[in-house]
Prior knowledge:
alpha+beta, CATH 2.40.50.660, 5 strands
Amino acid sequence: MFPIGPGIMFSIIPTIVTIGFIVIFGLIIVTVIKGLAQWNKNNHSPVLTVVARVVAKRTNVSRHTHHHAGNTSMHHHSTSTTYYVTFEFESGDRLELHVPYNEFGYLVEGDMGRLTFQGTRYKGFQRDV
C-alpha cells in the first residue's frame, strides 16, 4: 500500500472536476443537437391527416426547486405537466404525441377521428360525430 498525501488530492480533485464539467457540457450539447435535428426533421415532414383512435393518455409531472440567491433558507417549488396521447392507426401502428393541455381533456380513450400531425408534432384531432 502506498501513502496518499495531500499533494495527490490537490492534483486529482481539479482533474475530476474538469472531467465532470466536460461531461455535463457534452451532454448539454448532445441534447441541443438532438432537439434541433428533431425540429428540422419535423419541419421537412409532410402534414398528414389520417383516421386514428385514441388508445391511451398519460401525463409526466416534473418538479422544480429554485433557490433564491443569497438566501439559502428560501426555496420556491414549481411543477410542470406534459401531456401525451397515444393514437392507433387503421394499420395497427401506434404513435404517441405531446398534446397541448387545453386539448388533452377533450380527448377520450376510444375516440375515433382524424388525426393531423407533422413528424412528431401534434396538429389536431377531429372527432367523428
